[in-house]
Structure formats: structure tokens, C-alpha cells
């Protein structure tokens, strides 16, 4: 069976306040074009369909149109979609029961993750398990074996701890509980001998993050790959770099570059071929390069090279970040260069001067340090879509107490 694996579409995302919807429409066209090139049995979108929990109407319309074309042009391709940490699971899964009848399966409820969807084609069978991004408390531990946090202490309680079953809060503990439940299902007689595919949105140990996603790499938020060794293939979303974490565990990565730090990196869809007729179910993964209509490019040089020269003219249709290497600052370089480079989004200059100032003034360098409370709030917002006021207050009090102690 052949599967097309993608994820982290981030529809509605902007780059330096510039809408990328047109670029994303072209990318979705390329996805449909790839489906036409081979006899795919399924398409996987492994989370972060949208960039925000409340996406702009244009992004919703774009995805809706994509699904309509997909179902019309490829009626035999089964679609598997999970929400990521940027999505609102409930909004994404609107009309999921009706869509399910059209073989477009959107998983919103983690408790439904342990009911596999069996896909049959040409006498072959695959069992698909869809695991949405797990928010704290979405899975409870087995009653006879309450899970402990990474430090040996019980995780957060919901309400009064007395007589209340502890809730799992860290990604690692939630994934361990999911792994335990998957093991129970896969051991059932009706599923033995059927190769299984897991679709999940998480940060797996060994994965390499990219600047366009905000990933906090505390050990409790990383998930060991060994938890999912029972699957023939694991299709992951969350990290934006296409990469193999293990022989059978892959991140498709984001199909477009969403930060200038990703300039020049190859973006891909993944063609996954599983030989279900073989007992070992060998897997072949092929990268399908995605050629953007407007690449994200970083350039550097003297202002005059850009303004009067022609060496960079070939990048007039690229999203640009330019670093000026002039020894003195140039006034209004953005306005001056926009006529030649209409997609110029960022200009950096004076870096050498600033580095010298930082070296001469340690206090200035210290001032550039990050604010832990801002990081904490940003983490909450990126992970859960909102900031928990009570947790923010507690964290602020903790920081204050640490300052007094020091």
C-alpha cells in the first residue's frame, strides 16, 4: 500500500505580516498533483492544519475547497487528519461524522484513538490509529497503575486531590498511557497480523526542531520512540524539518518554509510504501520535493550591490531577508530596495556595530536575555491556545521567590 504523508500546513500563517495563503493554495495544488501520479491508498495530514486555534475565514475556505477537490478527483483515497497543538480539535472536527462517511477521518477525541480504522485495498489491509495532540488531562492512567511524573511525583490533579484520580499532564506520561492502550488493542485477536500505522502530533526524542515552530525541549515533553515500536509506520507532525527519527518513524515536516532560518532547506511530502504481503512489512519512504512558487531566501551584500547591481535580480520573486554588510548604516533601505525586490520582508544591518557595543557593554548583552515569564506565557499560548491565568500567577510568584533567595 502507498500512503502520502504530510502535516504542519499552518494554513493562515503569515511571514513578517505577509499573508502566505496564495503560496499555501499552490502547495495544496501540488499535493493533489502528487496524488494523481500514483495509486495512493491514503493521505495523512499529521496535525497543525491551521496556524491558529481560530483560523481566518480565508484559511478555512481554502482547506474546505481542497477537501472538495480531493474527494471529487480521488474518490478512492482515504484521508486521515489529526489536530495539532495549533488547531482547535473541536473546530477542526466540525461535521466529522458526515465527513467520515466520505472516508475523510478527522480525529478530535483522544479516547477514540484506540479504535483503529481498517483500510482495505487490493486484498491488503492496514489498521490506522489517529492520535491527536494530547492536552493535559485528556487521558487518565490505568486505575491499577497511576502514572507518575518524570520526577516520581504524581502529575496535576483536577480539583481536590483527595479521592480523585490523578491526571496525566506531561507529553511523555500521556504518550506512555497511549502506548499502553495501543498495546492492549494490538494484542486483540482481530488485529493480529494486520500491519498498523500510527498518526500522531508530538515531539519525539531524537527529532530536530526548526526556528519556525516554538518547541520547548524539557525532558517531560519529549516522547521516546520505543513507545511506538509495535507499529509498522509512525507518521508524525509537529517538527517542521523532514526527518527520520527511526527506521519506521518519520516527520514529514512543513511543506513550506515558515521562517527565514529555514531558507534553503528542502521541503517535502513523503511517499510511504508498505509491503503488507510480507511478514516483516518492509517500509520504503521517498521524499517528494515541494517546489514553492516563492522561495524563502536570505541574501547578504553591500547596499549598492542590491540597488545598482544585477547579481541578485533573479530573486525579485522570492520572499527576501537581506543583510547589509556596509560599514555604515543605510537610511530607509527597505523603501529604496522595494522597487526592485517587491517581496523584501526583512532587512538587517549594523550587526557588526551592535556586536562591538555588546562586547564593550556587558550590561547591554545581559539586557538582551529572555524574560522567563514571557516565555512561559508564550509556551502556554502556543501549546494550548490560551494562557492559564492561575498558572501564570503561580509561575510569577515562583520567579519572585527565586529572586529573593538569590
Task: Write up this protein.
By secondary structure, this protein is an alpha/beta fold. It has three domains: 2-289, Metallo-dependent phosphatases (Purple Acid Phosphatase, chain A, domain 2); 296-367, no CATH class; 372-405. Helices cover 29% and strands 21% of the residues. The protein has eleven helices and 17 strands. The chain has helices at 21-37, 57-73, 89-92, 96-101, 171-186, 303-307, 333-337, 351-360, 362-367, 372-384, 389-405; strands spanning 2-6, 14-15, 18-19, 42-46, 78-82, 104-106, 117-121, 124-131, 196-201, 233-237, 243-246, 249-251, 268-274, 283-289, 296-301, 319-324, 344-348. Strands 6-5-4-1-13-14 form a six-stranded mixed beta sheet. A six-stranded mixed beta sheet has the order 7-8-9-10-12-11, with no helix packed on it. Strands 15-16-17 form a three-stranded parallel beta sheet. Helix 1 (21-37) packs parallel to helix 2 (57-73) and helix 10 runs antiparallel to helix 11.
Instruction: Kindly report how far apart the N and C termini lie.
Output: 60 Å
Question: What is the number of helical segments per DSSP (H or I, 4+ residues)?
Answer: 11
Overall shape: it is: globular
| Order of secondary-structure elements | EEEHEHEHHEEEHEEEEEEEHEHEHHHH
Amino acid at each position: 500500500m502507498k500512503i502520502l504523508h504530510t502535516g504542519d500546513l499552518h494554513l493562515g500563517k503569515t511571514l513578517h505580516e505577509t499573508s502566505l495563503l496564495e503560496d499555501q493554495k499552490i502547495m495544496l495544488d501540488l499535493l493533489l498533483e502528487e496524488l494523481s501520479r500514483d495509486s495512493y491508498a491514503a493521505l495523512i495530514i499529521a496535525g497543525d492544519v491551521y496556524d491558529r486555534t481560530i483560523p481566518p475565514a480565508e484559511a478555512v475556505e481554502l482547506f474546505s475547497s481542497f477537501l472538495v477537490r480531493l474527494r471529487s478527483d480521488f474518490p478512492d483515497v482515504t484521508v486521515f487528519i489529526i489536530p495539532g497543538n495549533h488547531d482547535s480539535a473541536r473546530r477542526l472536527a466540525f461535521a466529522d461524522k458526515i465527513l467520515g462517511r466520505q472516508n475523510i477521518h478527522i480525529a478530535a477525541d483522544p479516547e477514540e484513538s484506540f479504535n483503529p480504522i481498517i483500510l482495505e485495498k487490493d486484498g491488503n489491509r492496514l489498521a490506522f490509529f489517529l492520535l491527536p495532540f494530547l492536552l493535559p488531562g485528556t487521558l487518565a492512567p490505568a486505575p491499577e497503575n497511576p502514572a507518575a511524573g518524570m520526577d516520581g511525583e504524581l502529575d496535576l490533579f483536577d480539583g481536590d486531590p483527595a479521592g480523585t484520580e490523578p491526571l496525566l499532564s506531561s507529553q511523555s506520561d500521556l504518550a506512555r498511557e497511549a502506548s499502553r492502550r495501543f498495546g492492549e488493542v494490538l494484542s486483540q485477536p482481530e488485529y493480529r497480523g494486520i500491519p498498523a500505522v500510527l498518526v500522531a502530533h508530538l515531539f519525539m526524542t531524537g527529532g530536530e526542531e526548526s526556528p519556525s515552530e516554538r518547541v520547548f525541549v524539557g525532558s517531560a515533553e519529549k516522547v521516546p520512540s520505543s513507545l511506538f515500536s509495535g507499529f509498522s509506520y509512525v507518521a508524525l507532525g509537529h517538527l517542521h524539518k523532514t526527518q527520520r527519527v527511526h527506521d519506521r518513524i518519520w516527520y514529514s515536516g512543513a511543506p513550506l518554509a515558515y521562517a527565514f532560518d529555514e531558507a534553503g532547506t528542502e521541503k517535502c511530502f513523503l511517499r510511504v510504501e508498505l509491503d503488507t504481503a510480507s511478514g516483516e512489512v518492509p517500509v520504503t519512504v521517498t521524499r517528494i520535493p515541494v517546489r514553492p512558487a516563492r522561495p524563502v531566501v536570505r541574501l547578504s551584500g553591500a547596499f549598492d550591490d542590491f540597488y545598482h547591481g544585477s547579481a541578485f535580480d533573479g530573486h525579485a520573486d522570492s520572499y527576501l531577508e537581506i543583510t547589509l554588510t556596509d560599514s555604515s548604516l543605510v537610511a530607509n533601505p527597505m523603501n529604496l530596495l522595494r522597487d526592485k525586490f517587491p517581496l523584501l520582508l526583512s532587512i538587517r544591518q549594523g550587526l557588526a556595530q551592535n556586536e562591538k557595543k555588546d562586547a564593550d557593554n556587558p550590561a547591554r548583552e545581559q539586557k538582551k536575555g529572555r524574560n522567563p515569564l514571557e516565555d512561559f506565557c508564550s509556551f502556554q499560548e502556543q501549546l494550548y491556545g490560551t494562557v492559564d491565568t492561575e498558572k501564570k500567577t503561580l509561575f510569577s510568584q515562583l520567579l519572585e521567590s527565586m529572586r529573593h533567595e538569590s
